[in-house]
Design a protein that fits this description.
two-stranded antiparallel sheet; alpha+beta; Four Helix Bundle (Hemerythrin (Met), subunit A); extended; 4-stranded antiparallel beta sheet; 11 helices; single chain; 2 domains
Length: 335
């Protein structure tokens, strides 16, 4: 019998994704000795050493922007999995995210090459600025400048520090080891230790994936409530009341919810579809011209937010159990 149907259902409904954007941060941790001083010569209340930037923020701005956009793309389309070891990406979002990452990887390659082409110029400008800074610090300015120069990697070494890495994978519970896979003299000890670890890890993963599904359901419900609050605030603050951009946010959220709702939260999905039918059939201009309709819009959004918040506080055990049945059915079909 299948003893982990929820994990099987997760395997069927999505993948784990891990994205890493790597580039040199150009920081140097200064020690008193870098300034030609002893530890006792530095008053930490007056002098701040620690990590210092070797380059100006502008030199790395393009790379930093691509990194933030990359993480934002993945995070808004996925869920943190088991304490953040990766992100769970539902199948419905896979193509969109992959396309977005492909474009960002191209942007990263362009920004990386531009930085490498301009590296000598960046380094020279930074050293000029550090020369001015060295004169304001205690100790030997020449010694500090020598330390800073040595902290800049050469061009060959620098190239290897860049990377745009995308990994897609699935989680599996550890398998129990067979005695035939180890030497006879070590069989009893290794088999017992490995099987004990596998049993304990299996239980932790089982508990973890159940909590993960609960958290994912609660997260989407909380996001619904937050969006409603933000829409109401925007309508209260806006000089003309309702803007199409505000309504479009709800349209996009409903569409995204359907793609992110891998756990099958039918109750929340029904509320959102009702909101689509009741609140989004009119344009912003229609609402601005009709005070009565505008009041109904605000009431509808407030009601949706309150309902979502109440659902987020409820136990989603029924959804988790229903989701697990996907794994049971998959196992039965495979059998």
């Amino acid at each position: 019998m299948n003893d982990n149907p929820i994990l099987d259902a997760l395997t069927r409904e999505g993948v784990l994704i891990s994205v890493s954007v790597r580039y040199p941060r150009f920081t140097k941790r200064l020690q008193p000795q870098d300034l030609g001083l002893e530890d006792t010569d530095v008053n930490e209340r007056l002098i701040s050493l620690g990590h210092k930037k070797l380059l100006s923020k502008d030199a790395l701005a393009d790379l930093g922007l691509i990194e933030s956009r990359t993480h934002a793309l993945v995070e808004r389309s996925s869920f943190s999995f088991l304490g953040g070891i990766a992100r769970f990406l539902p199948n419905a979002k896979l193509d969109e995210v992959q396309h977005g990452l492909d474009e960002l990887e191209k942007d990263f390659a362009v920004a990386r090459q531009k930085f490498l082409d301009d590296y000598a110029e960046h380094r020279s400008a930074a050293l000029v600025e550090w020369e001015r800074t060295a004169r304001t610090l205690p100790g030997d300015p020449a010694k500090l400048l020598g330390t800073i120069r040595g902290a800049f990697p050469d061009a060959v070494e620098l190239t290897a520090k860049f990377g745009f890495d995308i990994h897609l994978f699935q989680v599996r519970v550890p398998e129990r080891v067979s005695a035939q896979l180890v030497r006879f003299a070590d069989q009893q000890q290794i088999v017992a230790a490995r099987n004990k670890a596998a049993t304990e890890a299996t239980q932790r993963i089982r508990d973890g994936v159940e909590n993960f599904v609960r958290d994912a359901v609660a997260t989407l419900r909380e996001q619904t409530a937050n969006l409603c609050n933000e829409m109401l605030t925007a309508m209260d603050d806006g000089k003309s009341g309702v803007h199409q951009k505000t309504l479009n946010r709800l349209v996009k959220f409903i569409n995204d919810f359907k793609q992110l709702n891998f756990a099958g939260d039918g109750q929340m999905e029904q509320l959102l579809e009702k909101a689509r039918a009741d609140l989004l059939s009119k344009s912003a201009e229609d609402y601005r011209d009709d005070a009565s309709a505008r009041i109904k819009l605000q009431q509808g959004i407030r009601q949706l937010g309150d309902s979502a918040l109440n659902l987020a506080k409820q136990d989603s055990a029924e959804i988790v159990s229903s989701f697990g049945q996907l794994g049971v059915r998959k196992f039965q079909l495979a059998a």
